Amino acid sequence: MKLLIDNLASDTTTDDLRMLFECFGRVRAVEMKKQGSAHVEMASSSAAKDAISELNGQNLKGFDLSVSEFTERSNFGKRGGRRRRRR
What we know:
The chain is an alpha+beta fold. The protein has one domain (about 1-70): Alpha-Beta Plaits, CATH 3.30.70. It is about 20% helix and about 30% strand. The chain has two helices and six strands. The protein has a four-stranded antiparallel beta sheet, with helices on one face. A two-stranded antiparallel ribbon has the order 4-5. It is globular and about 30 Å long. The protein starts with a strand and ends in an 18-residue tail after the last strand.
């Protein structure tokens, strides 16, 4: 199961996240996205759900984490909706 992690400190590394999430189970992959955001893929959905319930709102490097299940629509609409064509 893939998780979306937001509100990360700018100096957070993939190793920081891997160590934090491995407390809940095997981590398949960690991918840093734009500054302050990352994806963590857990090997099992039960480990991912445990990580969400325990880490959401927890402090890491002075920032309260936002941890949720990633869906393809997680980032939908961040640009303000449909793009209009110029004429």
